[in-house]
Design a protein that fits this description.
The complex is a heterodimer. Chain A is an alpha+beta fold. In chain A, 37% of the residues lie in helices and 18% in strands. An eight-stranded mixed sheet of chain A has the order 5-6-9-1-10-11-12-13. Chain A has a three-stranded antiparallel sheet with strand order 4-3-14, with no helix packed on it. Chain A has a two-stranded antiparallel sheet with strand order 2-15. Chain B is an alpha/beta fold. Chain B has 14 helices and eleven strands. Chain B has an eleven-stranded mixed sheet, with helices on both faces. In chain B, α1 runs antiparallel to α2. The radius of gyration of chain B is 21 Å and the shape is globular. The two termini of chain B are 15 Å apart. The chains are: A alpha+beta, B alpha/beta.
Chain lengths: 503, 454
Amino acid sequence: MIAQEILDTYEMTIGIECHVQLATATKLFSGADNDARDKDPNIATSPIDFGLPGMLPVLNREAVTLAVKAGKALNSDIAEVSRFDRKHYFYPDLPKGYQISQMYQPIILKGYVDAPLESGETVRVRIHHAHIEEDAGKLTHHGTHSLVDLNRAGTPLIEIVSEPDIHSAAGAKAYATELHRLMTYAGVTLGNLYHGNMRFDVNISVAKKGAAELGTRAEVKNLNSFRSVERAAQYEFERQIEILEKGEKVVQETRGWDDASGRTSSQRSKEDAQDYRYMPDPDIPPIVLTREEIQAIQETVPELPSYYRENWSVLGLDSSVINTALNTHAVATLLGDIYPLRANKDAVLAEFEVDEAGYEELVKKIFNWFVSIPEEEIDTDKLSSGLVGPRRLLGLAKLVASNKLSSTTGKQVFVEFFNEAYDGKSALEIAEVKNLIQESDEGAIDAIVDEVLADPASAKSVEDIKAGQEKAIGFLVGQVMKKSQGKANPAMAQQAIRKKLGV
Amino acid sequence: MVKISDFLNLSARENVERALAKAREHEAFHALLSLSEDRALERAAKVDAGEITGRLAGVPFIAKDNFLTLGDTTTAASKFLENFKAPLQATAIEKLEAEGAICIGKANLDAYAHGGSTENSAFGPTKNAHDQARVAGGSSGGSAVVVALDIVPFALGSDTGGSIRQPASFNGVVGVKPTYGTVSRYGVVAMASSTDTIGVLSADVEDAELVMDILSGQDRKDMTTLPDFFVPTLIESPKRIGVIKEFMTEDVDADVRARVTEYIEAMKTKGHTVEEVSLPMVKYALGIYYIVVPAEISSNLGRYDGIRYGARAEASSLGEVYGLSRDQGFMPENKRRIMIGSYVLSSGFFDAYYLQAQKARTLLINEFNKIFESFDVIVGPVAPTPAFKLGENTEDPVKMYLADIMTVPASLAGLPAVSVPAGVTNEGLPVGVQLIGPRKSDALLLALAKEGEK
């Protein structure tokens, strides 16, 4: 462990390369299925992916369209002419002996991403460029032999290369997270990190604060979660400082990340770096796009996170709430439909019997449900089917705001919105079916309070209250809630207790 | 020699049997690597039953063994693919089959089409149809010889730097190298992707024209193919003919020059204007070619690694699988080109060699474009000599490369070029004349060649 005072004298500099798997139906250069999930090895392949003699690549235009969309999300210009090149190396998962990539004239040019930090600040990361390329297959090792699976070979990717503009592990995580939002919002990728839809290579170097030159960098490859990006960056920061503090030199190399141990380890040093013998690919004519074509494609890109942040800023929510709500595109679009109100504003306010301020309170409740309820309890994939619409959510928020449901039972109803068994049922209907409506009937509450007070178990508390110990009221209210199975309005219960005990 | 029309409206089965018998009769020339008798007879039965009709119904042909075909192996004349059976067919084969033509076998070539004599075949050289002591030319040597020997009326070849034209010239048959992009390369073992073209060798021009008409056209499986522009045509007005000065120097065999000059004189008598034309850039063409083409070869041959198909050497590590499989699978000439190509693409040399060569290539193209403002067609010999002796050039690769000097310029510029028989030398060896035109002038070249036959 290095002392914090020493760490504080250093600064890290990070650039990130991110591989994004494009959500095309077929592969980049063949008609084979691009979705290899749950498929047997070498099923999602064609003779082209297999690299048979005489096979030629046929560019999937859908991949080009998605790259143009990605360019918009990255605030980048799109090249009117871009080309493919061959990157040569030998490995059993690379069927042709080369990977088709874009070395010299990439399709996506300079841009930037504004990534929100948890502190509420924003870090601007410039994009150097992004290019289209094909993925390689997969190799698994089994003792004396290895097996090749080409299902992933030829899957279209874009590789987004950032400038070294990040100076903290939190910043690296923020950038990775924001890239994920941008790419999923723009419809470029399915964004499934578990299936490796986005993979991050983190280039990191350290130097004394204020130093004129950057240190020697190490590249941690193939990180597939935001958290591992952050942890790997922090680990490398400390590892490299430790080396420098000992007066030694950081080696330029590729390192791997082990999530379980939380450490990086050396994989390949620069001396082993291959000469890729890049060459323009003569089989593929250049991609030529007119300004009009680029514009027409980019007009179809849905609203991006910045649009929602701007619209929601007036709600006064914590930026972490907003950014968490923005993590899933479907949640963002749903919340975007709820707030701000547009043409139908007056009708909606009338329907839920609120003024504008009251409406904002309803909206905040909805935000908090989405942010506070664990991902495992609600399947946000179901949002795309329209299962959970604005009207149901607002109806539920209104029930809670008007004390018909407690915040606890409100959450229960919210979770049930994602249950197809209650499809089409309003919040009130679900609450009634589940018998969750808060008891606000004075007579009914009085009856329960009487029961509680008559219970010998309450005797001690009653005495305490009469002796002026206010806290004891809470216990009795709790008893009332218990007896009512959580449905009693707690404020009314407290009032009834005070009245009956004359305090 | 036999023509397509000699086979039409006859029993397809008899056509196929006749061709197969002829092929066996001429085994000494080693023009063929395999016969696909079963499949050919099967297809013949379908033609005879009227299930397959078309402009080539029942006509037998032979494909260079770098075209993927069903029925037998596709070896590219290499040990590596000695037992390789393709699961699909080249677009060119599919198009011919759709017109009723029947592929009866596969012709010998220099392994992976690297060479100009068919001596680089892993299975032994093909002998010249006119003199078995001489080379067939190459790399489509087998395709030229099977036509010259009357086994089939036409054969398919590929031409990357002269591989159709030069063997056509050495064996006295017609050879067509179309404009780059005219015919789909899908399913043909790639040599150098930016100059690979698919064409035909035939006994006469009219047959070549028909086959080109069938083969040409855009293929969605090959992004470099052009929309079909090939329309057979006739010569209706005098053309401006340029004689390439650099190809008619004293370095060129006297008999070759004499035959070419006679051919040009005959063009004059048909009313065409003939002038000498200089192409100063062609002296760099060979240098450009032997940088760009090996670069692409080194890339295209990367897939032959012993992992997924082809011969895999016994080895104990991954590095050995690669090293030994490639060592055993490739011929010396393949290795030479892979090494040159890898060298010119390596970092530090890429700019000086590959990029520089591509720039020079652009200058060559510009020069051709300029010349075609003043000329409709330019002519010259196909090769500086008639067919040389077997073994004569095998010890000296540069001497072998020099034999390509007249064919590589059109390849680098993507231009159509036709090799037409122009008589024989005093020793009785065939000489070919080469007609080169601007891009997409393929039909015009064939019309001129047809006129020249009369």
